[in-house]
Every structure is written in C-alpha cells, then in structure tokens.
Design goal:
The complex is a heterotetramer, with one copy of chain A (510 residues), one copy of chain B (305 residues) and two copies of chain C (367 residues). With 510 residues, chain A is of the alpha/beta class. Chain A is built from 17 helices and 22 strands. Helices cover 32% and strands 26% of the residues of chain A. The radius of gyration of chain A is 23 Å and the shape is globular. Helix content of chain B is 43%, strand content 20%. Classes of the chains: A alpha/beta (510), B alpha/beta (305), C mainly alpha (367). Bound molecules: adenosine-5'-triphosphate (ATP) (2 copies) and magnesium ion (MG) (2 copies). The site of one magnesium ion (MG) has 4 residues of chain A, from α1. Chains C, D: It comes from Cryptosporangium japonicum.
C-alpha cells in the first residue's frame, strides 16, 4: 500500500523544534502534495525521509521494513530520490557531469563512459524540452535551467519514491507544464511522488493526496478532490486567511523614479542586451509591477537601477536628480534600495545575527561621529522586527535559524531601515508561503501609503493581476504592455508576455 | 643536538649544580654548529655545569629572545655563536648588563668590551690557506667558479675576500661565475649544474663552505667533469674530509670548532669562579688545511688527539 | 517575536517558542564564550605544565620578558586578524618586517639630498617606515580588489618583492648601531624596543593600545560591521551598500602598517636592522589568529581570541627554551600544539551544539 | 537568444536554443584552451627574453638540465594540484621532502633488527620512504576530514611535525654517500636522480609518467569528476553520493607520496640526505599550480597548466642564474612574475568571455 512511511518523526535543531512527531506515508502511483508555511518543517521532513538528516526520534520504513538511512546515497540506493529546495549543483561542472555525478556510468576499463552519458543526458533534456548542449557549464545556465538540470538528475535515477521540494520556484509556466506531464508518466509507472510548492493552486492541480504541516506537526490529510485552496490555506495558517490581495486606495504623489530609454548589456554575456530601451516612471505612493518570463531581464533592470550592473545608455533619475555613476551605497543614501532576488546569495550574511543583518544597510544612521550608537541600533532593529513581523526568538539569533519567509522579511526590513524613497523588490514572494506573502504585500502597500514608490517583479500571474496599481510586461528587455489594475485578464497577460498558453487552473478564481 | 639538551632539560629543573651555562648556536642541523654545541656542552658537563642548548636560526630577533630566556633563567654564562656582527651587539650588551658574561665563538661582533671573549677561528687566514691550495691544485691557471654563502652573513664576505686576496695574484686564473648558494647543498647543486651549462670550460670550484662544495661535487660528477675540476671548501666537515679521502675534493680549511668551544667554556668556568677569564677578549684560532695527504689526522672539526 | 501568523492553541505555542528561544539565546552566549575559552584552555594548560616543570617560568620578570616577545607576533596577528576576518590572508607581513627595519636603518644613517646629508629625526623615520609598510599593504589591496588576484597569491608575490627590496636597499648588509647620535639629533630610536614605563617594555604598551583600538574599531565602528559582513557574504554586503573594495584595501594597508611597526620594534630592540629579519613570521601570525578561533573563510574571529593565540605561540616557544628542550623537539611540538589547539576548538563547538540540542529537547518534553 | 525557455513559436525557439547551446559549448572549449594559454604566454615570454639575453639558455643540454630541475617542483606541484582542485592546500610537502630523504638515508645506512644490522635493498628503501610520505599525507587527511581542521592549519602543523621528525631521526646530521655498497647489495639509489635513459635524466621520465597518470585519473576516472565536484560545491557533491571524505583524504595522501618521491630524487642526486632539505618548497609548488590556471577556491585547474606553471618557476630561476643576476634581484623578480602571471590570467579570462560571447552572437544571427 505505502512504499515509504515515517512514524512519530521529531527533529530538533539546537533550539528549534522543526518536527514534533509527524507520521507521513507515500503511496505508489500517487502524488502526495505537502503544504505548510515557511518553517513548517516540510524540507526537514523530506530530508529525513531521504536520509540527509537523521531524525532526533522516530522510525522510517520502506515496504513495511524498518530502515535506518546512513547517508543520502543509502536512501537513493533504496530508491528514494529527492530534488532539493535549494539547488545542489556544481557550477564548475558541465550538465552531463552533474547529471551523473556520484553514479557514473563506467566502461569495462573503469573509466567514465562519456559517450553513453552524453546520449543519456541529451535524451533526458529532450524529454524536458530543454535542448541544451550537455557539455554546457551549469554555471552558465539561468536559475530556471539549473532547476531543470536538478529535475533531470532525479529523473535519471529510477526512483520508487521521488520527492520534489519546491521544484518549480524558478520555472516558467510552460516548463511547469512539461514537469507535470513527466510526473504523470512516473505515477503511471507506479512511482510515489511527494510534491512541495508554495504555488498552492499548482500543487493542488497535480496532487492526489494532500498533507498539511503546521509548526512541525501534521494538522490535516485529505484526498485532493475533496478540498480546495481555501481549506488548505485555513489548515496551513490555522485561521481564515484574509484575502491575499487587500484592496487599497492609492494617493499618488510626485514622480520619484524616472527611467528614460534605458539600455543595459547582459553582464553574463556582454553583447546580448538584457534591457533594450526601457522607459518608465514611478510616482510616490504607487506600486508598479514588472511581469515577465524567465530571462525577460527584470533582474537586470532592477540591478541596473540599484547600481549593481553598469548601464550602456539612457537616464535614471531619482526625484528629478539624475543618477549617473553613483555607487550602490550612494544610491542607497539617496533613497533607492533593492531587495534582491536570491536572498541566500545576495540578501543575507549567514555569519551574522538577525539584528546585524537588519541594520547592515542603514548602519551609518546609527553612527555618532565615528562610533555606532548601540541603543539607537537596537531600538530601530526591534522596531523593524515587529513592523515586518519577523518570527525570531531574539535579534541575536543566527539568521540561518529562520525559515525562508522570515529570512525574506529580514531582507525587506533591512531595506526599510535605510528609509528609502524608492523601493525595488525582485521576486519578493519567491519561495515564500501564503502567510508570509500576505505580510510582504501588506508591507508593500503600507510603504506605498507612507509615500514610497514601489517597483517589484513577479513571475506569478495572480500577483501581477492584483498587487500593482500599474503593471508593466517585460519581454526580451522591452516593455511590451502596460495595464492598470483590474483592467486586464490573465489571458491578456500571457499574450503580452509572449509567454505561454494560459493554464486552466481551478484555484484561479480567488 | 638532541641528546645533550634532553638530559640538560631534565637537569635544569633539578636544582643548582655548578649553575647553568647557556649554549646558543645558529642551527643544529649543520654539522659545524652541531660539533660546536656538542663540544661546549660536553666540556661544561665535565666541569659540573648544567647546560641548555638552543639555536637562533640566524634570526637576530630569536637570538635576542634566547638571551632573554638565559637571563631570566639566571644563567652563569652564555656561549654564543651569534646571528650577525651588528645585530648581536644589543643582546650581548643586555646579557652583560644582567651580569652574565658572554663568550662568543666562531663569529665576531663589531664591538669590543661587551663580550668577555671573542674566540673565532681565523676565517681570513683559513680562506687564504684554502685559496693557496686551490691555486696549487689548478696549477695557477684556468677558469673557476666561486660559490658564496648567504649574502647577509659576515663570514661569507670574509672568506670570499680571503679567497680573492690570494687568487687575484695569479692573472692566469679567471673567475667565470660567482653565485650565492646560501650555504645550501641542493641549491649549490642546482646552481652549479646551471653554470656548467653556461660554461663547461671550468677547472676549479671554490666554495664558502663544505656543504656547498659537496653540492658542486655532486653536480660535477653528474656532468662527468669531476676528474677535470678541483673543488675546495671551508669548515672541514667530516663529509668533506671523506670526500677528500675519496679524491672528490681537493682540500678544505678546517675550523677547530670543538677547540674554540671548549676554550670558551674553560674561560667561562674561570670567569665564574674567579671573576676573570685570564685571556684578552679577541682570540683567534688558526684554521688548518686538510688535504688527501693529512686527511687521516682529523676527526670531527678537530685534530685527532 | 510576533507569532501572529500561526496556530492555536497560542498558549502552548508561545511557551514552546519562548523555551526554544531561551535555549537558542543561551546557546549563543555559551558559544561566544567558548570561542575564546578554547584558546584560553590551551594557554592555561601550557602555563600549568611549564610552571610545574620549571621554577623560572612563572616569575614576574620572565612573564614580562615573554610578553615582550609575544608583543611582536601579537601586533602582526592583530593586523592579520582583520585580513582574515575579511576572508583574505597576508603572507607578506614577514617581509614587511624586514623591509621597514631596513628603511629605518637607511634613514637613521642619513639621507643625502642635493649633496648634503640630512639626518631625519626619529619620529620622521618611524612614520616613513610605517608608511612604506602601508604602501606594500596598499599594493596587496590593489592586486586583490582591482585585479582580482587571490589574496594568497598576491601576498605571496609581495612576500618575495618586499624581501627582495629589503635586500637590495641594504645590499644584504645589516644596519649597525641605530642608537643615533646626539649631535645629529636622531637619538631615541632604541626607546621603541628598549624603553620601559613602570618597568614594563614599551612594546607591550603598543600591543595593548593596538588591541584596544582594534577592539573598538571592530566592535563600535561601522567599519567593523562592514568587515564581518564582507567576510561573511561579499555579494550581500555590496548590495547593502558596504564599500567592499575599500574595506578590503584598508585591511591590507592596516596589516602592512602593523608589520612595519613590528619591524621597527625589532630593529629598535637590536639597535640594528637586518634585511632578512621576519622570515616566516607570517606563519606564526596566522597560527595565532586561527588558534584564537577565527575562521580562514572569513567573518568569524575577534581580538581577544587572537591575543590569546599569540600568547599560546609565544609562551610555548619561550617555555620550551626555558626547559632547554632541543630545537628539534621544539619544532615538532609547535606543530602538534597548533593542530591540537584548533582541534580542541572543533571538538568543543560540536560538543557545545549537542549540549544545547539536548537541553532544548529536554525543555520540549517538559512543556 | 533570450527565449531559450518559452514555448511558442516552437520552431524559432528550438533553433534559438540550439544556437545558444552550440555557442556556449564552443565558448567552453575556447576557455579551456585559454586556461593554459595564459601560462603558456608567460612561459613563452620568459624563454624569448632569456634566449635574447643569453646564448647558452636555449641549448639542448641546458633545456634538459633545467627540465631536470623543474621535475622536482613539477612532481610536488602535481600532488598539490589535486589538493587545490579539492579546495584545500598542502603546506607540509616541503617538510615531507626532507623527511623522506632522511628515512631513505636511515635505511640505506642499515637497520638494526635483533642486534643484527640488515641492509634493505634500494626498492624497499624507496617504498618505505614513499609510504612514510603517504602516511604524513594521511594524517593531514584525517585532520581535515575527521576533525574539520582547516587544511591550511592542519598542513601547517604537519609542516612543523614532519620537519621536527626529520631532524630528530637524523639528529640534524646529513646522511653522506648514499651510493650504497655492492657487498651489502644496496647499490643503485643514485640512479633515481643521477641515471639517464637515452641521455635524459630519470627524474624527467618520472615527471612525465606522473603527468600522464594524473591526467588519466582526472579526466577518465570517476575519482576525477568527484574531485572537481568536491572542490566546486562540496555540499552538492555529498548530496549526490560522492564519497567526499574519501576523496579529500586521498588527495592529501597522493600529495604526500609525490613529496616523498621528490625528496628521494633530491637525496639521490646529491647521494646524501639532509634533514633540512625542501624548506619553502611548498610555496613554489603552490605558485606553479596557480600560475597554471588553478583556482585556490577549488574546482578549477588541470595537469597541463600546472606543468607549464612549474616550467615558468623553474626556467625563471635557472635563467636568472644563467644571466648572473644577483640573488636579491632574483627574489624580487620571482615575486613580480608570480603576480604578473596570475594577473595575466584574470585579464585574459575577462577578455576571453567577451570574445566567446561575440562568437556566440555571430552564430545566432547567422542561423
Ligand atoms: N540546519 C538547521 N539548523 C537550525 N534550524 C533549522 C535547520 N534547518 C531547518 N531549521 C528550522 O527548522 C524549521 C523547519 O525548517 P524547514 O526548512 O523544514 O521549513 P520549510 O517548511 O521547508 O520552510 P520553507 O517553505 O521556507 O522551505 C524552521 O524553523 C527552520 O528554521
Ligand atoms: N536566453 C538566455 N540565454 C542566455 N542567458 C540568459 C537568457 N535568458 C536570461 N539569461 C540570463 O540569465 C540570468 C537570469 O535572468 P533572469 O531569468 O533572472 O531574468 P529575469 O527577468 O529577472 O527572470 P527572473 O527574475 O524570473 O529570473 C540573467 O543574467 C540573464 O542575462
Ligand atoms: Mg523548505
Ligand atoms: Mg530575476
């Protein structure tokens, strides 16, 4: 009946109780969707089932036989394969190297059988409709493409249980469609699939069974057909979720951000234009959204504005003053701050505490002549922690002890501490749960009310449709469409972004 | 070396015999300095003193630290083969001010009146002996190479000059190359090989010490030139003497290291017992030339008795 | 710690959170102490052992003398600490020690300007020597920041360049009696290494002052926070407006200046400057910093630990000499102690973590 | 080519993707070549300069001699390469050189078993010496893998321990004439460093063989891929089931073995073994690897580049001697060359990237 079962699993990290006695089972031929807020314990549970973490207490059984996994390899050999939430690829190796890393195909002579590996790699990539040369360095791939490699690697191992932890966080809709097709093929072959995603409707679409975790405890299980989004959200959050997208009345002030004919070369590839003549304006109190597919160039646009990457031509003005060669910090001082896309890589200093991360960007504000005024800093930090509702035991906690959503809030809080006039957010809701999402959007609205100009990017149609006052659709570095809130439908959006066929989802009407 | 100082360390904690004599030499991994240290330590024990043997690796700062240590251990006397004619003046003075007589061996310092004695083998004289033997061996003509010691070492200069003083009197002798091999055998080997490549027409090699001379020998042997080239060194190390017996080296100027060390300890003993060493400060011991003819008469940096 | 977004029953949940919160905070505090404790333990063990074996080890005068010896490596280590906190390494400090001594020697010997020989006063000499050290550091900084040369390689190159320069300037010779000459008004140089205040050598005061200054710099000034951030995650630091390049360049300059100061102290102690002074000092400095609990990957470490590390290295060396242990054993033991001290670190941290976890687990089951 | 991932119109999309794919692959190949090209350029420049300045530089015999000198550092560098590919560093190789020579000296001098003195044949001696080197490497490996001591520190510790051991075993003395004695049947040791085949010294063959073996190991065996993966992203490698710990332990053992072999060659050349042999050799080995285009952060580098790096270091040293340049200048120039060679690297890579991109673009627009 069930291939893989975990019973009464608990896990304690130092002071954190990630799991408090969870029972979990995966059935062959079925997709079990696992829901839960950031920090609910989803990844931890999966890591334990895949032999990466060892449970503090509790038992794991395969086909009813109790097992104790000694390593990820051990679990993989018994047919339990996991796609990790955070990419685990070697950027310095080619796609094929990564696909077969640790499970090389060897010739009789004991050498790596490159030819065989290459054909196999090409085949799997074709099935994923991602025709890249298998010899390409993974480091040269986009986030989305890397995630596909991660998926391909899992598919190459004939798994009996396939665990997917946030496999689609960087995938475009068509890529997700492909993935779903493959999942259905797998389940048809009797593979048990566990699927975790913060795109609830997406997860619900593929799921047969639904399991909800809350604060490390299992709070509900159900058949997917019997439940709807609302129910899932209720179970996750523990109360009725007030709408993700609160209505708000906008009071527009004067123009704060003015971009004219901006051209930005692609840093990773200097004669491809990442941004090709973009003109846009953002006024105080206004929230402007940037929608686009992977590689549309949103990140480049925001990074160029923040001073991270050089511009080729065009003009950027902040409240009338033209920004030319100003450095990142000068721009921050002038009131322009970016919340980056990849919080692990660009947002947080893992060796520092929550508080130190929060105050990092606005530090000079607490400098009395040469020295920092600790009291000012602490008050400001704890105020921000409550403002952005970071869930942490103390400002002194290591940043690593926070879950994804809370880490994201810290990054935003850091930006707010510089009291900016223009706030740039790149994918602020990526890998963040509904609860935290609502908080984040509420924050953005609140800041807009306070007279900030907000410019944010998103890959999710729902957000694009409901959050911004004005939505700009970006495609291949050009603005291909502009809509005001309410004045557009999902279909318009898809058409404009030159992206994909609008997907038919039940959860859409929310 | 190891054994002496081990027993010394066990000794140094056990109370006051005749008191402590601190022996400080450049490095115990060079046969010359080792012989020095061993001879001094042996003599001191014989006279009923504890000893502690340490080395400063030609690092003036470390030497100064070692002398501090000797002072705080209330040593009765210090036997020192110093780390630089100028850099050592400060530390020696420091010891003197602390009431500890310092007896310098092997190398002088550029100041008199601070050390109780400076017993040095006469490097200039030794160099001249070696050079004369060298000239004889080369029949007063031909091309030769000089391998000099560490540039920043006084004796390297003194010996090089000593060689020049003699050889320059023979116009038929031509120095085709002069490089520093930092007293090191492998460096001498490598550099000699490189020089041979540049110029095979070489009849002689004169080196600032035996270690380098032996490196040159190895290189010449490899190039099959050894029988045509005379090699002369300095120090009189056992290995060199063996090489001389084997006919691989022509000669070396033997520094009676053991002798100097023993005399230093004896004078230290005298000074400790009745306040004065009974000798003037500057004392120089002549080097002896070792050739195939007299090689058998010599032991470890001393004439066999 | 708002819990607004999660599950009932709130009471249990809050108690729970509070508990784990307490645990975490507590664990953090303990860890912090432990980071030095580790080095302290090593030091304590050394002192006890040597005191038992030698009656001349733990005497006031000997401790003062040893501390004076520690001062030199300590000053180098403080500079090195900043570089390591930033995630770099500086192999050139040893050569800078030699170079700054040579520069001082050259100046005290008089500089010829337009035919006339001028004898700059000591304070000028000192400033120039330190400036030279800072300059070498600046070159390191430029190589690392502008040309993206790996710190190990950049400073390895400068290790040779600076040493070569020292030898060329001095032509391999040692500069004798730097005591100066009253008539030339350039006396007083020997005060730096020879002078005493209240019976305590000046160099010890210098170390103490630097230690305080660096602690303040690291703890209180924004620069310190920037330093830890750069070492912890350079990209994030940069996006947060931290002047990463400047921070990096600075630390190498500071390290160079510290090395120059150490070189001056040595030259002053010996009232003579040798071009080969300071060879392999970099290794002792790095060892001190790491024994002091710093991570070579950057972002972790502090002044207190580094000082203790320097004392471990220094007391070990002097103690072994005091016992009359043979040089060969000294070398071997030094290596063993370095490794052991760091292993002790690792061990304690793991132990500490487990302890905390256990405690937390206990609390939960209790609640 | 910015649409690699969006579906319609499929035709355009696929063509597009294919193009960009080809372009990237192509760019990859170019880059690969360039990695060494950089080192090659440095080497070419050196050779040209020296050939212009000295007519005895580019002669067959001199090149052979210089290559023989390169062999020693080259063998060390090959071992170091593996360690650096894995993201570590090995400072202990210099000391292992000394230690293995001493061990050989001790054995060739005869070992006393139950009162009788036995003279092991040369091949036994060689195996034992290499085993000892491997053992020291194993200790490095254990410290790094089991006790999580930073490679820099672990191997720094062993630098002292191994050196101390060498000095203690030999009691600081040099082992003379290791030629062996026909009667004792232990002759032939000098063949390793002195022997020639077809007029080419044995040590050069050894270097060549090792180079081939390592290339195969790195390129063809799974171990090689594991090595790059471990150096590139240890966590990812571990999650992929790569036996990371074993890989790490292995590289230190291999490095130790290479160092021991180098030590034997030196002892054989001199037919005498000195305990202080090999001091600071580690720096030359590291320099060679990095000049050869390897990244100290791990995961990047290869055998060919490393060899070229070793030739740069070796030819530079010998060339300067050949020209009779003073030791002081030699030191300074060496530093400058190391830094320049690596800067050249950085420059070329940036340049290369742009070039490749252009090529890629061209292709796309063409299709
Ligand atoms: N290595 C770790 N050390 C300390 N705490 C950890 C560690 N890993 C996870 N945690 C904590 O365990 C809890 C569960 O984390 P987990 O990653 O499983 O949540 P999640 O449901 O996957 O969240 P997300 O949706 O953001 O991925 C969180 O509070 C997290 O802070
Ligand atoms: N087709 C492509 N070929 C090569 N590089 C690309 C391509 N598309 C995007 N890139 C590069 O991939 C990196 C990631 O781009 P990215 O996908 O972040 O753009 P984006 O619009 O911000 O999308 P998202 O933010 O959703 O990732 C950028 O450096 C971009 O230049
Ligand atoms: Mg997760
Ligand atoms: Mg982006």
């Amino acid at each position: 009946m069930t291939v893989l079962t975990g019973s009464a699993i608990t896990k304690v990290f130092g002071g954190t109780h990630a799991l408090k006695g969870v029972d979990f089972a995966a059935a062959p031929g079925r997709v079990t969707a696992l829901f839960g807020e950031n920090g609910a314990g989803k990844s931890t549970l999966m890591k334990i089932l895949a032999g990466i973490e060892t449970p503090t207490t509790g038992h794991i059984a395969v086909d009813g036989e109790p097992v104790v996994f000694t390593s990820a390899r051990h679990a993989a050999d018994t047919g339990i394969v996991i796609i990790h939430q955070e990419l685990s690829l070697c950027a310095n190796l080619s796609i094929e190297d990564n696909l077969f890393l640790g499970r090389e195909r060897v010739t009789a002579a004991g050498a790596v059988d490159r030819k065989q590996e290459r054909t196999a790699a090409a085949a799997i990539l074709r099935r994923l409709e991602e025709e890249i040369d298998p010899r390409t360095l993974v480091g040269d791939l986009r986030l989305g493409q890397q995630q596909l490699v991660e998926i391909a690697r899992a598919l190459l191992q004939d798994a009996r249980v396939l665990i997917m932890d946030e496999p689609t966080s960087a995938l475009s809709e068509p890529e997700v469609e492909v993935l779903f097709r493959m999942i259905r093929e797998l389940t048809a072959d009797g593979v048990a699939v566990v699927y975790i995603s913060h795109h609830l409707d997406e997860a619900l679409e593929i799921a047969d069974d639904v399991v909800v975790l809350r604060d490390g405890s299992l709070v509900a299980t159900a058949e997917a057909d019997d439940v709807d989004l609302g129910w899932i959200v209720r179970q996750m959050v523990g109360r009725d979720q007030d709408s993700l997208f609160p209505d708000r009345d906008t009071i527009l002030g004067d123009e704060l951000l003015t971009i004219t004919d901006l051209v930005v070369p692609d840093p990773s590839n200097s004669d491809r234009l990442a941004i090709d003549g973009v003109t846009l304006r953002v006024r105080a109190g206004e929230i402007v959204g940037l929608y686009g597919l992977m590689g549309a160039g949103r990140t480049e646009l925001l990074e160029a504005l923040a001073g991270r990457i050089p511009i080729q031509s065009g003009e950027v003005a902040l409240a009338g003053e033209v920004l030319a060669r100003e450095s990142i910090r000068e721009r921050i001082a002038r009131g322009l701050m970016l919340v980056p896309e990849d919080r692990q890589r660009d947002g947080l200093v893992q060796t520092m505490s929550v508080g130190e991360n929060l105050s990092l960007a606005g530090l000079l504000a607490f400098a009395r002549r040469v020295f920092l005024n600790r009291r000012d800093e602490e008050t400001a930090v704890s105020r921000t922690i409550t403002d952005v509702t970071v869930k942490t035991s103390s400002p002194k906690s290591p940043i690593g002890s926070l879950s994804g959503g809370n880490q994201q809030k810290v990054v935003i809080g850091k930006a707010l501490l510089t009291d900016p006039r223009v706030l740039l957010l790149d994918e602020p809701s990526r890998g963040v749960d509904v609860g935290a999402k609502a908080d984040v959007f509420a924050l953005m609205a609140e800041q807009a009310q306070r007279g900030l100009a907000v410019l944010f990017t998103t890959s999710e149609a729902e957000e694009a449709l409901h959050i911004p006052d004005r939505l700009l659709v970006l495609s291949r570095g050009r603005i291909v469409g502009e809509f005001t809130r309410g004045a557009l439908t999902r279909e318009d959006l898809m058409a404009a972004s030159g992206g994909s066929i609008p997907s038919t989802k039940t959860g859409e009407a929310s | 070396g190891g054994d002496d100082s081990d027993s010394a360390s066990s000794g140094s904690s056990s109370g006051d015999a005749g008191g402590l004599i601190a022996i400080i030499t450049p490095s115990p991994d060079n046969p010359f300095f080792k012989a020095e240290a061993d001879a001094a330590a042996a003599k001191a024990k014989e006279l009923g003193y504890e000893t502690s043997v340490a080395s400063h690796d030609d690092d003036p700062n470390k030497q100064s630290e070692l002398i501090d240590a000797a002072i705080s251990r209330k040593a009765k006397a210090i036997i020192l083969d110093n780390a630089g004619a100028d850099a050592s003046i400060g530390p020696v003075t420091k010891a003197k001010d602390a009431g500890i007589p310092v007896f310098l061996i092997d190398r002088e310092i550029n100041k008199t009146g601070v050390a109780t004695a400076q017993i040095v083998s006469n490097n200039a004289q030794g160099a001249q002996l070696a050079a004369q033997e060298f000239v004889k061996g080369m029949k007063s003509k031909g091309n030769y190479v000089e391998l000099t010691g560490k540039e920043s070492d006084t004796n390297a200069g003194v010996r090089s000059k000593g060689y020049a003083d003699v050889i320059s009197q023979y116009p038929a002798m031509k120095k085709v190359a002069s490089v520093s091999a930092n007293w090191d055998q492998q460096e001498a080997f490598t550099k000699m090989e490189t020089i041979i490549q540049k110029n095979k027409d070489i009849q002689g090699v004169i080196a600032g010490n035996d270690t380098m001379a032996l490196g040159a020998v190895a290189a010449l042997k490899g190039a099959g030139l050894l029988d045509k080239v005379v090699v002369v060194g300095f120090d009189g190390s056992p290995d060199a003497i063996a090489a001389i017996k084997a006919g691989e080296m022509l000669a070396t100027a033997l520094q009676p290291a053991a002798l100097a060390a023993e005399q230093a300890v004896e004078q230290a003993d005298a000074t400790i017992k009745d306040g004065k060493s009974g000798k003037e400060e500057k004392q120089s011991i002549d080097c002896e030339i070792v050739t195939k003819a007299n090689a058998d008469e010599f032991g470890v940096f001393a004439r066999k008795s | 710690m708002s819990t607004a977004t999660t599950t009932p029953p709130p009471t249990e949940e809050r108690r729970d959170a509070a508990a784990s919160a307490a645990a975490r905070a507590n664990r953090l505090r303990v860890l912090n102490v432990v980071f030095e404790a580790r080095a302290f333990i090593a030091l304590a063990v050394l002192i006890i052992v040597f005191t038992l074996l030698s009656d001349t080890f733990l005497t006031v005068t000997n401790v003062i003398t040893m501390t004076k010896h520690v001062a030199i490596n300590g000053i180098l280590a403080l500079g090195m600490l900043l570089v390591i906190l930033k995630g770099g390494i500086d192999l050139s400090v040893g050569s800078i020690v030699g170079l700054s001594g040579v520069v001082a020697g050259e100046l005290l010997g008089g500089v010829t300007l337009f035919g006339v020989v001028a004898y700059p006063p000591v304070w000028v000499t000192i400033l120039v020597a330190i400036a030279v050290g800072t300059l070498v550091g600046a070159v390191n900084g430029i190589l690392v920041t502008r040309f993206n040369v790996a710190p190990f390689i950049a400073t390895l190159g400068m290790l040779y360049v600076a040493r070569g320069a020292a030898l060329l300037i001095s032509d391999g010779e040692t500069y004798p009696n730097l005591g100066g000459d009253p008539e030339l008004g350039n006396t007083g140089f020997n005060y730096l290494g020879g002078g005493k205040i209240l019976g305590i050598p000046v160099s010890i005061y210098l170390l103490a002052i630097l230690a305080v200054v660096f602690t303040v710099l690291i703890r209180k000034a924004p620069f310190g926070r920037w330093l830890y951030a750069t070492g912890g995650n350079e990209r994030a630091a940069e996006l947060s407006g931290v002047p990463v390049k400047r921070v990096k360049a600075r630390v190498y300059m500071i390290s160079g200046a510290c090395a120059a100061l150490a070189g001056l102290i040595i030259a002053s102690e010996l009232t003579s400057a040798a071009p080969q002074a300071g060879e392999t000092f970099e290794l002792n400095a790095i060892a001190a910093v790491v024994i002091g609990g710093a991570a070579l990957s950057g972002g972790r470490g502090n002044v207190r630990g580094t000082l203790v590390g320097a004392f471990v290295i220094g007391f070990l060396a002097d103690g072994l000499v005091n016992l009359g242990v043979s040089t060969f054993w000294q070398i071997l033991i030094k290596g063993a102690v370095i490794v052991l001290a760091v292993m002790l670190d690792q061990g304690q941290q793991r132990f500490q973590k487990r302890g905390a976890a256990a405690a937390a687990a206990a609390q939960t089951s209790a609640s």
